Amino acid sequence: MFGSFFLRAARMLATLFVVAVAVFIMMRFSGDPVSVLAGPDATPEQIAELSARWGYDRPIPEQFITYMTGIMSGDFGLSVRSYTPAAEVFLERVPATLLLGLTSLACAVLIGMPLGIVAAVNQHSAYDRFVMGLSVLGFAMPNFFLGILLILLFSLHLHLLPSFGSGSWQHLVMPTATLALSSAGAIARFARSCMLDVLNQPYIASARARGIKGLRRTVIHALPNASIPIVTILGLRFGDLIAGAIIVETVFAWPGVGRLLAASVASRDLAVVQVIVLSTALTMIIANLAVDLLYGVLDPRVRRSAQ
Fold first, then answer.
1. Number of domains in the chain
2. pLDDT tens track for 173-207
3. Which domain holds residue 92?
């Protein structure tokens, strides 16, 4: 058991190291941040001064060593836009993204899970085809397109909800709906597929032959056995809270991490981009680790194999 834990920890550290190296390479070789920072009217002397101030005039290996040393010590550098620590800029936006992401994930689960389970129980029915059609539509429709449609309907035509910003529950409604509908479609399809696999198992047929009612058979016997694959997609959705909200936060001007990432990439704020990407990778790793632990709770066979 301890060997498995240390193996997971080693994988986590190796993944973070690979992500850190990839971020450094992509950001350093994708363009000169000093020219963006200085502006189009800057003189060569001003550009050279800014390069020296931010360390971009040093050799790439020296920049990499400074970068990795800072990460290991918890120092992600300064934002070139606000001249404050990049970690502080990131943490200021985290509450807004967590509020939006967790609310949309909860709504997606509450919508997608029941729809998928009932569709599996009523396979090949009109309800099943209707739910799967809606799921495909919600999953395939781009977030930015759905968000614009909601703005046109509820803000411009009906004047019911604000189209951008934050500060009240009304501001949260449309961004949450945009994220939740696409996630609910994926969860519904996945829940239906998992439930169909379980409902076709012999022990479900045996429970039906013993006279166990349909609701009890579905909730007590089928759902727990279908929960492991469902937990997997929920873990992936949780790990995607930051990256998945970039477009939606930009469309609705939501002051979260996703919008900060888009602005930082545009302004070549390397320190902020690096801390956001590393935090996103860490969130995905933690979500996968939590899913692995839940496997052991939900299925004793997984727990025994890890011992």
1. 2
2. 999 999 888 888 888 888 888 888 888 777 777 77
3. 87-306
